[in-house]
Amino acid sequence: MKWVYLVAGIALYVKMIVMPNPMAEMVDVSIVETIVQDSGVPNAVSGIIFRNRLYDTIFEVVVFTLAVMGVRFLMSNEQPLTHIYQFNDQPSIVLARLGATIAALVSIELAIRGHLSPGGGFAAGVAGGTAIGLIAITSPTEWMQKLYQSWQAATWEKISVLIFIILAVITLIGLELPYGEMGSLLSGGIIPILNILVAIKVALGSWAVILIFIRYRGLL
Prior knowledge:
Belongs to the CPA3 antiporters (TC 2.A.63) subunit B family. By secondary structure, the chain is mostly helical.
């Protein structure tokens, strides 16, 4: 039976390599031209990504929100740890905070230039969450929790999602900000604003998850 699967796999491989793709001959050049004109981007592949990226980002925000809610639900019946061990040697503290500074700068770079290079709001939020995590492993948990509450991070997280949804709906309707010169920082229209909002949402959500795990599971 294994030989049958092997022969079938080889036959499929030969078919894909040797035989031409009939769909490639049916592609109309006008489709590519339409995508380029509609998106305003010379690269048709980038134009397709730009036209569908908003839907992908919306579901990324939804999935991450469900993940944060899931962590809170799973830890709701846990007992907080009475003592949390943290890094207290000076070299580890210096390296962690240096890494946090670099991660925070990378987060800003990915958010404001995500439409020009690999990056975007979700990647920027992950970098921001990494910076917060590095600070958390070298700082008192009570101080991090107090800072989270005093800055009303949970409220800003919800506000960023709400603004993102409103702007996304406006964009899907067809209203967009003017685009600058292609390749410049202001050429993304509303995309950089959406990236920044997603970055805020993911970073603050990561902060909440980190505090929950530290409180109930510790660090070391």
